[in-house]
Amino acid sequence: ERYKSLLRKCLNHGFDDVAQLNMFCNGLRSQTKMLLDASASDSMMMKDSEEAITIIDALAASDYQAHHDRS
């Protein structure tokens, strides 16, 4: 969600989905990259952009739900 917020602040960034995914994945810690790859059943970088975004959104929603279920 923080990444999406940053992109919204810069609407004319000009980065396509593939470039955005590369920047996002390259900015992750190694443990988070491993979690994404495990969720993708392959390397996240091997997925097409639409499928990768779907996986990332699902993980973010799951994490959000887990944090809000605790309170």
Description:
The chain has one domain (2-69). The chain has helices spanning 2-9, 17-26, 30-40, 49-69. The protein is mainly α. The protein has 4 helices and no strands. The radius of gyration is 13 Å and the shape is globular. The protein is 70% helix and 0% strand. The mean pLDDT is 83. The longest helix is centred in the last third of the chain and has 21 residues, at 49-69.
- Whole-number tally of structural domains: 1
- Percent helix, as a range, is over 70%
- Unreliable segments (pLDDT under 50, ≥5 consecutive)? none
Overall shape: globular
Main beta-sheet strand count, sense and barrel state:
none
Strand content: under 5%
> What is the N-to-C succession of helices and strands?
HHHH
Mean pLDDT: 83
Structural class: mainly alpha
Please give the count of helices. 4
* Total E-strand runs: 0
End-to-end distance? 20 Å
The value of Rg in angstroms is 13 Å
